[in-house]
Specification:
243 residues, alpha/beta, single chain, 5-stranded parallel beta sheet, 5 strands, Rossmann fold, globular
Length: 243
């Protein structure tokens, strides 16, 4: 793996010559309850992206630390990009990678609100002839059902809960304050997902679920399972594009 945070331009040039692909984590600066830091999504996306880059001997790019976190803006500390700004940022990075000869880009998304901007950027870059595979923690729901003791607050909805807390305990345990961890299971409005909605309209603490059963061991299994499935999908993608 080549880490852009410590690589020189000559290192990158040598990597490009051997046909590497780039891996870009995309996170957010968003509240994660009283016990997790604002950069949780960025830390998680970066940790998973590193495992993936190691597995494909790829170029690990610095994370885009900000995302589309509009739905959590009512909590102090959350800073959000517009969907257009995020999409354009990914497109600009993709164009730069293509210009220097990188053969393709894998995005690793750590935040729900980023999905549409990343997808639109991937479509635009693909239409321009630059392959992009956008990954959103594949197999997470199945892994969570197998490994977690607590129930999710909603189907496929993991935020400041046992899932994210376990992953943070595996990646950045010094930032987790388990003494502050407390459950909240809000009642989701019937129109949730069907219209734009601030999460503070039905949630007080910013926690969705129960973070208390979280452990680093569970987090490591989650990360390993997500990375393994990601590598499988990347293999299919590279075969399709001949990269």
């Amino acid at each position: 793996m080549l880490d852009a945070a410590s690589a020189s331009w000559e290192d990158v040039a040598a990597g490009i010559a051997r046909g590497l692909v780039a891996v870009l984590p995309v996170g957010a600066v968003e509240q994660h309850g009283p016990h997790l830091p604002l950069l949780t999504d960025t830390v998680l996306a970066s940790g998973v992206a590193r495992r993936i880059a190691e597995g494909v001997d790829g170029l690990l790019l610095p994370a885009i630390a900000y995302g589309d976190a509009w739905s959590a803006e009512d909590w102090v500390g959350t800073l959000s990009l517009s969907p257009e700004t995020l999409r354009r940022s990914i497109e600009d990075i993709g164009r730069g990678l293509r210009r220097m000869g990188v053969r393709g880009l894998v995005t690793v998304n750590g935040h729900f609100g980023n999905r549409e901007p990343i997808n639109l950027a991937a479509r635009a870059l693909g239409e321009a002839g630059f392959p992009v595979l956008h990954l959103d923690y594949p197999r997470l729901e199945a892994l969570a059902a197998e490994l977690m003791e607590s129930e999710p607050a909603g189907p496929g909805f993991y935020h400041a809960d046992e899932v994210e807390t376990s992953m943070m305990l595996a990646l950045a345990p010094g930032t987790v304050r388990m003494e502050r961890a407390a459950p909240e299971y809000p009642a989701f409005p019937e129109l949730f997902g069907s219209e734009p909605m601030k999460l503070s309209a039905f949630n007080r603490s910013g926690v969705f679920g129960d973070p208390r059963p979280a452990t680093a061991a569970k987090g490591e299994e989650l990360i390993g399972g997500i990375a393994g499935e990601s590598l499988r999908l990347i293999g299919i993608w590279r075969g399709k594009w001949g990269i």
